[in-house]
Amino acid sequence: MHAWLCTNPTGVEALAWTELPDPAPKAGEVLVEIRAASLNFPDLLIVQNKYQIKPPLPFVPGSEFAGVVQAVGDGVTHLQVGQNVACLSGTGGFATHTIAPAARCIPLPDGFGHVDAAAFIMTYATSYHALLDRGQLQAGETVLVLGAAGGVGTAAIQIAKAKGARVIAAASTDEKCDVCLKLGADAVINYSVEDLRDAAKSLTDGRGPDVIYDPVGGALAEPAFRSIAWRGRYLVVGFASGPIPSLPLNLPLLKGASVVGVFWGEFAKREPQANASMMGTLLQWYAQGKIRPAIDRTMPMSQLPAAFAHMGARAVIGKLVLVN
């Protein structure tokens, strides 16, 4: 097998396409032949030693992938050789093969392709957990999605619309805003040329959005929060822009608003039954055509450094998927 090996987490340039011995699964594990792996923002952070999870060296990055089970270890009963699966295991995806915990592999129903499957779990689980569990979004409410053309943002648009909410999508270019409208957003804000707070207020007749979905952080956080409605919920999803913002705490006081942390990975560990139920709902929605990953492009696995550069330039709309 071959894999992009990280021996020193100093950045993408330190990764090397390396031939490694063919692995064999232990008890509770499966060997997966990887057909597709998506690129997520944590994949960049982890090779820069900036992510909260720091795997022992050396490691193969790539948190999310889909492929075909090649072998199963002792005790694995819900998967079998030849079965198509999707998996979010945190590492191992940027390779031709990987060993994955069987418990983290989801059997794919017929018609669920590897490219879509590789771009599904992290973004849709994060956005569903954020909007419907942590944010308690209700039909008829308005949600403002920041970074709406990214992976979690495009998923958030679709999930909010499936719930019956009104969606205002905020993105940094007209092209990205157009994609958001095609995905179902009711209105858009190009925050590169529009004042985010004023636009959000105008689009809600001065009331403000009920829920704000923020995977961006940085300079957008405070103006977004200043636009929030009474009893609004501000969802802290991530910090794709880099800086972690500081909010004046008088703002949630004056608005009767909540600042709500979203950490889907920890939720999945602590509440596995609730997470499994959520994933079942998402798979049903996919089969019903309510949600579908927005794929920016596919690239050969051998072009991982170029894929990272494309993501680093903030040029990805939806998800970028590497294929073997």
From TrEMBL:
It comes from the Bacteria. Residues 11-322 form the Enoyl reductase (ER) domain. Pfam families: ADH_N, ADH_zinc_N. GO terms for molecular function: oxidoreductase activity; zinc ion binding. InterPro entries: ADH-like_C, ADH-like_N, ER, GroES-like_sf, NAD(P)-bd_dom_sf, Quin_OxRdtase/zeta-crystal_CS, Zn-ADH-like_protein. This is Alcohol dehydrogenase zinc-binding domain protein. It comes from Acidovorax ebreus (strain TPSY).
